[in-house]
Amino acid sequence: SMQRRLNRMLSASHDHKLLALMDVGGFDPKEVTVTVKDRKVKVLAEHKEEHTTARGKTYNYKNIMKEISLPPGVSEDEVTYSL
């Protein structure tokens, strides 16, 4: 489940070593994407807001992107993550 504890965000499941910890405060879980490809874990968090005011539309956009290389001996299918 995406709602598991943040302090286990990216870990290798065989020995539960923590690979990375990211602060994604201010982002909704559905705004966070994690992909594992070419021995790299890529974390992308994107938040977009649009407000209509008397003066027109205002936009708020923020994102975080982080790429972590897998350590030797850890296979891509062992990677788990939680928010």
3D structure, described in words:
The chain has 83 residues and is mostly beta strands. It has a single domain, classed as Immunoglobulin-like. Helix content is 0%, strand content 53%. The protein is built from no helices and six strands. The protein has strands spanning 10-12, 17-20, 32-37, 40-53, 56-69, 79-81. Strand 1 and strand 2 form a beta hairpin. Mean pLDDT is 81; it is low at 1-9.
In short:
The chain has 83 residues and is mainly beta. The protein has strands at 10-12, 17-20, 32-37, 40-53, 56-69, 79-81. Helices cover 0% and strands 53% of the residues.
How are the elements arranged and paired?
Layout: E1 10-12, E2 17-20, E3 32-37, E4 40-53, E5 56-69, E6 79-81
Instruction: Please give the radius of gyration in angstroms.
Output: 16 Å
- Termini separation (Å)? 8 Å
Work out the number of β strands. Answer: 6
Order of helix and strand elements from N to C terminus: EEEEEE
Number of helices: 0
At the third CATH level, what is the topology name? Immunoglobulin-like
Q: Which sequence of strands runs across the widest sheet?
A: 2-1-6
Number of domains: 1
Largest sheet: 3 strands, antiparallel
Chain-averaged pLDDT: 81
Strand-pairing-aware structural class? mainly beta
The level of helicity is under 10%
Query: Which CATH class is shown?
Result: Mainly Beta
Which architecture name does CATH use? Sandwich
Beta fraction of the residues? over 45%
